[in-house]
Amino acid sequence: MTIIDNLVRTIKASGKDTFSQNEILEILIPQERLALTEGNITIDPKTYTIIVDGKSQKVARKIFELSYYFLENKNIAIKKSKILYDVWGNNVIVDHRTVDVHVRAIRKILGNGIKTFKGNGYGWMDN
């Protein structure tokens, strides 16, 4: 399958009418992301699974992306606006509460590794 075939297949499968430049570049030039491990948690981008205590879980795409993002940027307090931009992109209109809802879902899966910075944002912090 050629790169163009992959692009066309991905666009058709998405059902979306428009794509940002970054989204197209991600399809054309996929970045090789490595699995991240923190204690008993492994986040594997090749299979889009989160493994906690040896139990593998398939999760929604944004839950996965946000979990990976937090672990990739651990020990950094990240403002909600930056999280929205980095994970959802700039061509999507979502409320900052979207981050809160997703963080709550991630905490149910990963535990309480994500710390809330009151009025500021979130971050995965080493205990």
Helix fraction by DSSP (H/I, runs of at least 4): 40-55%
Structural class: alpha+beta
How confident is the prediction overall: mean pLDDT?
85
CATH class of the largest domain: Mainly Alpha
CATH homologous superfamily descriptor of the largest domain: Winged helix-like DNA-binding domain superfamily/Winged helix DNA-binding domain
Low-confidence stretches are: none
Regarding quaternary structure, what we see is single chain
**How many beta strands in the DSSP annotation?**
7
Sheet with the most strands, sense and barrel status: 4 strands, antiparallel
Shape designation: globular
Radius of gyration: 16 Å
CA(first)-CA(last) distance: 45 Å
- What letter string, H or E per element, gives the SSE order? HHEEEEHEHHEE
Quick overview of this protein structure:
The protein has 127 residues and is of the alpha+beta class. Helix content is 43%, strand content 20%.
Write the layout of secondary structure elements.
Elements: H1 3-14, H2 21-28, E1 36-38, E2 41-44, E3 49-52, E4 55-58, H3 61-72, E5 78-79, H4 80-88, H5 97-110, E6 114-117, E7 121-124
Antiparallel strand pairs: 1-2, 2-3, 3-4, 5-7, 6-7
Commentary on this structure:
43% of the residues lie in helices and 20% in strands. By secondary structure, the protein is of the alpha+beta class. It has 2 domains: 1-31, no CATH class; 59-124, Orthogonal Bundle (Arc Repressor Mutant, subunit A). The strands form 2 sheets. A 4-stranded antiparallel beta sheet has the order 1-2-3-4, covered by helices on one side. The protein has a 3-stranded antiparallel beta sheet with strand order 5-7-6. The longest helix is centred in the C-terminal third of the chain and has 14 residues, at 97-110. The protein starts with a helix and ends with a strand.
